[in-house]
């Protein structure tokens, strides 16, 4: 059960730029990829459907005439009276956007409760509650007779999203065998994208019908029921069972998910990690301690940067954007295909690449591709609309623009999209995992809310410069990853401390070996010299 990192390699690691590469994948536990684990992860990933469905459905519903007439008649009238021809300054009503983005605020608050539920009662109850909240919310919305019902419904939906997004990614990371953890975890993002695509198509089908909005909102009950029922049949993760003192059950579960009786080594590491975690009295205070600086940094900055890629401008405002770009009546179908289809397909790329080529490569390639696409889109819009916002694209120009928007969505879909959920869920050691994931969800929701709320005003003020604004953020985040994120592919979740120890920058935040929290690392000095190869990248001057 000794870690397989060479102590000397850690010194070498201090001099590296970028990541500590763990070539050989670190410690390998025995075990197969069992059908049981695959089915379990598939069911849990359904949690992503809820989030995705909501992301995709709301923008369309709030632009349906009967919906506005019924719930927001004043807004509807203002919209009709709006005669501006400036393409940058589209009709913007803060009340309507607040209605849309209120869900993200509710999710933000719920994620903190979810962290406590996950820690004290397990990941399963959190997922079940997530499904239940969402179900209540979808029903309230589908049958809404007044604005109150609509808003209470949205708050329930938000609770559902908060609970699911907190618990599903950590559930997946804990269940998955190390070798394919990235791929299984990305099941969550895969479901998000399928949810968005499904929602876009449903909106397209219902938008022409009188009460179509009821169908659009009510269908959210379907993924919610699937998750509720599914989570009843799910098994709890061994990590969580041990954390709650159910050792025998945990070992049996580990044997079942790994398909072998020989799980002693992995089991012992989980027990050690859990013992160390049990010494921690307050996980919230704990994560702010110096030794958890890398986890706190990534759990805060990754979701912040994920939203600052500007992806939700496309997800929420695609119909508006595509209309501006001259796609006319086909705009909404077009946006369904773009935001949905490309997003789903490109996410598959990350499923197959993430455990092979690693997280860093996807982050870096995705960042460069997003940057270039945003700059091209910004230049094309600047050339056409200039500063006064008047003009339109011809067919060829619109097609070129479409290609670059697709390239941008694809890049996000195989980088910041899935990795924004995967990395925070796998880098935290047990004692700070629920807290770290709650911070990740809360920051993500806060900026999802913020961008939804201010995008239309930003566009009106920044004009084409808005695309350069997001491009500049993409540049910053790509540099951030290049220098600060170590590679985590193939590293067991309870062994992540080695990665920080081997990193040129985070290394200085790590306490002396014998002090490290996870029990396994207390034996650090005694570790045999081998296996982690941290010699890859050049030293900064
Ligand atoms: C993000 C969402 C985004 C979605 C697009 C998710 O990872 O958190 O904000 O809308 O990806 O696929």
UniProtKB/TrEMBL annotation:
Entry annotated with the keyword Transmembrane helix: yes
Superkingdom in the source lineage: Eukaryota
GO cellular component terms listed in the entry, alphabetical order: membrane
Localization annotation: Membrane
Chief place where the protein resides: membrane
Segments forming domain Major facilitator superfamily (MFS) profile: 40-489
Gene Ontology molecular functions: monosaccharide transmembrane transporter activity; symporter activity
UniProt xrefs under InterPro entries: MFS_dom, MFS_STP/MST-like_plant, MFS_sugar_transport-like, MFS_trans_sf, STP/PLT_plant, Sugar/inositol_transpt, Sugar_transporter_CS
Residues passing through the membrane, by range: 33-53, 95-115, 127-145, 151-172, 184-206, 212-234, 298-327, 333-354, 361-381, 401-423, 435-458, 464-485
One protein family per Pfam: Sugar_tr
Topological relation to the membrane, as annotated: Multi-pass membrane protein
PROSITE patterns: MFS (PS50850), SUGAR_TRANSPORT_1 (PS00216), SUGAR_TRANSPORT_2 (PS00217)
Keywords linked to the UniProt accession: Membrane, Sugar transport, Symport, Transmembrane, Transmembrane helix, Transport
PANTHER family in alphabetical order: MAJOR FACILITATOR, SUGAR TRANSPORTER, MAJOR FACILITATOR SUPERFAMILY-RELATED, SOLUTE CARRIER FAMILY 2, FACILITATED GLUCOSE TRANSPORTER
Similarity comment text for this entry: Belongs to the major facilitator superfamily. Sugar transporter (TC 2.A.1.1) family.
NCBIfam families: SP
Official protein name in the record: Major facilitator superfamily (MFS) profile domain-containing protein
Biological classification of the source: Eukaryota, Viridiplantae, Streptophyta, Embryophyta, Tracheophyta
């Amino acid at each position: 059960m000794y870690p397989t990192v060479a102590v000397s390699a850690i010194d070498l690691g201090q001099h590296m730029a970028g990541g500590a590469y763990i070539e050989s994948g670190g410690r390998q536990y025995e075990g197969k990829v069992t059908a049981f684990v695959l089915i379990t992860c598939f069911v849990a990933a359904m949690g992503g459907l809820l989030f995705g469905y909501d992301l995709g459905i709301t923008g369309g519903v709030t632009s349906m005439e009967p919906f506005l007439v019924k719930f927001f008649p004043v807004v509807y009238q203002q919209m009709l009276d709006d005669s501006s021809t400036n393409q940058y300054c589209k009709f913007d009503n803060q009340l309507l956007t607040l209605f849309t983005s209120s869900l993200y605020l509710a999710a933000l608050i719920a994620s903190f409760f979810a962290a406590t539920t996950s820690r004290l009662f397990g990941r399963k109850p959190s997922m079940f509650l997530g499904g239940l909240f969402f179900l209540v919310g979808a029903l309230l919305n589908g049958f809404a007779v007044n604005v109150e019902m609509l808003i209470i419904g949205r708050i329930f939906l938000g609770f559902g999203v908060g609970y699911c997004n907190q618990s599903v990614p950590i559930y997946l990371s804990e269940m998955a065998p190390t070798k394919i953890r990235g791929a299984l975890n990305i099941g969550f993002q895969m479901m998000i994208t399928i949810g968005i695509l499904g929602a876009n198509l449903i909106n397209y089908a219902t938008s022409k019908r009188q009460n179509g909005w009821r169908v659009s909102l009510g269908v959210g009950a379907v993924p919610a029921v699937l998750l509720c029922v599914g989570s009843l049949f799910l098994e709890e993760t061994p990590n969580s069972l041990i954390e709650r003192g159910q050792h025998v059950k945990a070992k049996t579960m580990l044997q079942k998910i790994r398909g072998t009786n020989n799980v002693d080594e992995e089991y012992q590491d989980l027990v050690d990690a859990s013992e160390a975690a049990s010494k921690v009295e307050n996980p919230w205070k704990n994560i702010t301690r110096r030794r958890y600086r890398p986890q706190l940094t990534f759990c805060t900055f990754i979701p912040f940067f994920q939203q600052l890629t500007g992806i939700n401008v496309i997800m929420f405002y695609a119909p508006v954007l595509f209309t501006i770009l001259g796609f006319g009546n086909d705009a909404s179908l077009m946006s369904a295909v773009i935001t949905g289809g490309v997003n789903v397909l490109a996410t598959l790329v990350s499923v197959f690449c993430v455990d092979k080529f690693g997280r860093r490569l996807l982050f870096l390639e995705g960042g460069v591709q997003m940057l270039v696409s945003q700059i091209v889109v910004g230049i094309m819009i600047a050339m056409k609309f200039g500063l006064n916002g008047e003009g339109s694209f011809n067919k060829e120009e619109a097609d070129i623009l479409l290609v670059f928007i697709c390239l941008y969505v694809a890049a996000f879909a195989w980088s910041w999209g899935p990795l924004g959920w995967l990395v925070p869920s796998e880098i935290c050691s047990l004692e700070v995992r629920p807290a770290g994931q709650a911070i990740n969800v809360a920051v993500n929701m806060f900026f999802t809310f913020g961008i939804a709320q201010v995008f239309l005003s930003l566009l009106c003020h920044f004009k084409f410069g808005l695309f350069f604004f997001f491009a500049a953020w993409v540049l910053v985040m790509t540099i951030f990853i290049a220098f600060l994120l170590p590679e985590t592919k193939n590293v067991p979740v309870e062994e992540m401390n080695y990665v920080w120890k081997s990193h040129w920058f985070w290394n200085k935040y790590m306490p002396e070996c014998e002090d490290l929290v996870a029990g396994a690392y207390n034996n650090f000095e005694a570790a045999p010299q081998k296996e982690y190869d941290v010699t890859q990248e050049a030293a900064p001057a």
